[in-house]
Amino acid sequence: MGAAAGADQVVVVRSSGSRATVRACSRTGDGYVTELGPFDGYVGRSGVSGSKSEGDGATPAGVFGLRSGFGVRSDPGLAQGWMVVDDADVWVDDPASGLYNTHQRKPADGRWASAEDLRNSPAYDYAQVIGYNEGATPGAGSAIFLHVATGGPTAGCVSLRQGALLDVLRWQDPGALIVIS
Predict the structure, then answer these.
(1) H helices then E strands: how many in the chain?
(2) Segments in the chain forming alpha helices (H)
(3) How many angstroms separate the CA atoms of 70 and 84, rounded?
(4) What is the CATH number of domain 8-180?
């Protein structure tokens, strides 16, 4: 688990191209054990990259915190908090905006030139923020989520079929990490 060693809960994503195998693991006195999975999932259409940039279609490699969740549907029981989204909710993906890689509400009023709509069903019926680029480095990538699979690769997120995703969301405690490779 490398950099995630010591975390009580880790979601492990191992990719091959744009496909992934996902396991939810807990720390024991003897190391980590798989509690959920393995589940089939997807990562970005360009696979996983250690040098992610905005719009490249890659999922970032590394160890990241699993943050709060959001979705078109009501809270499935995520301990980190939940927000039901509507047509005004977006995630800013404009590297020139001071609001880059953050949740905001429309209208843009010149605050950003582009943003991803969060009211996106079925992909964002249930979604969780992956704590990537939290310093909002312009152009390093934005809007990286764990969300419902739609049958193929993502634009840079990690996705699972809805039932598996709900199991993983409900299993987590605050402080859980995701390891993507």
Answers:
(1) 1, 14
(2) 162-171
(3) 6
(4) 2.40.440.10
